[in-house]
Amino acid sequence: MYNEETGAETCVRAVCEELRKLPNRSTLIAVNDGSEDKTGEILTNLSASEPQLTILNYDRNSGYGSALRSGLEQAAKDEYEYVLFMDSDMTNDPRDIPRLVAKMEESFDVVKATRYSHGGKVSGVPFYRVAISALGNSLSRLLYGLPVHDCTNGFRAGKVRLLMQMKLTEKRFPIIMEELYWSKFLAKTFAEVPVELTNRSIGQRPTSFSYSPKMLWDYLKYPVRAFFGIRPKSDTTC
Q1: How much is the mean pLDDT over the chain?
Q2: Span 204-217, mean pLDDT?
């Protein structure tokens, strides 16, 4: 979470409600990534009534990638088998969490939500963004050579043991593609769960994602490397 005071409580309540339905031991790890608004205060207040909530607070904003790595490290410390990544802006429905958990129970290494196959869809998002995303994902799927139709979807789950082997370095959104790049060489099984992605609600902080040429290349460089069989190296920076 970064400056998500508008929707922080709604998100935490909705996710915890779904976790309580699961038979599995589960925790919601909320990473407050240097928020300058009341996000941290809201999370602290929620912890009194939501025992499954674990809060990681950081003094300064370090970026999406850094926040995900922090959450992963906490999940490993807590000895969880799987970690499920989910943005806090409610563009994905927490009610889909049990559907991803069902795939975890089948022991898939990587579970990806998909907007572009098996009945998944996008609602309320500007057409140009959907078109760029769909085209980019089609190209990425071809280059990766993986049974994944929605490579850039940040709503996904993976085995903690597998993810901890990855030397992920991206600080921002391209970590999703860097993670899949590593999965190309480390993971053996993949599953997809169709979901509906919606737009951020009015009043929420606007998305910080941009479609600049640099950002697009930061995403595509990983499937390009995978296509040419260039394996990730643990002792170098991608």
Answers
A1: 94
A2: 74
Phi, psi for residue 113 in degrees, rounded to 5: -70, 150
Q: Taking 50 as the threshold, does the pLDDT of residue 24 lie above it?
A: yes
Integer CA distances (angstroms), 191 to 114, 118, 147, 222, in order: 10, 11, 8, 20
CA distances from residue 201 to 9, 12, 20, 156 in whole angstroms, order as listed: 14, 16, 26, 22
What span, in angstroms and rounded, lies between the C-alpha atoms of 207 and 199? Answer: 10
Q: Which helix (H) or strand (E) element contains residue 136?
A: helix 127-144
The CATH architecture to which 8-227 belongs is Alpha-Beta Complex (3.90)
Ranges of each domain in the chain: 8-227
Rounded to a whole number of angstroms, the CA Rg of the chain reads 17
41 in Cβ contact with 1 (< 8 Å): no
70 residue type, one letter: S
Give residue 60's identity as a one-letter amino acid code: R
Other residues' Cβ atoms within 10 Å of the Cβ of residue 217: 11
**What are the pLDDT digits (tens) for 75-97?**
999 999 999 999 999 999 999 99
Nearest CA to 185 out of 217, 137, 139, 227 is that of 227
The larger pLDDT score, comparing residue 105 to residue 212, is at 105
Please classify residue 226 by burial: count the beta carbons closer than 10 Å to its beta carbon, then call 0-12 exposed, 13-18 middle and 19+ buried.
buried
Q: What percent of the chain has pLDDT over 90?
A: 90
Task: Tell me whether strands 110-114 and 190-194 are parallel, antiparallel or unpaired.
Answer: parallel
- CA distances (Å), 1 to each of 47, 65, 88, 211, in order? 15, 12, 6, 21
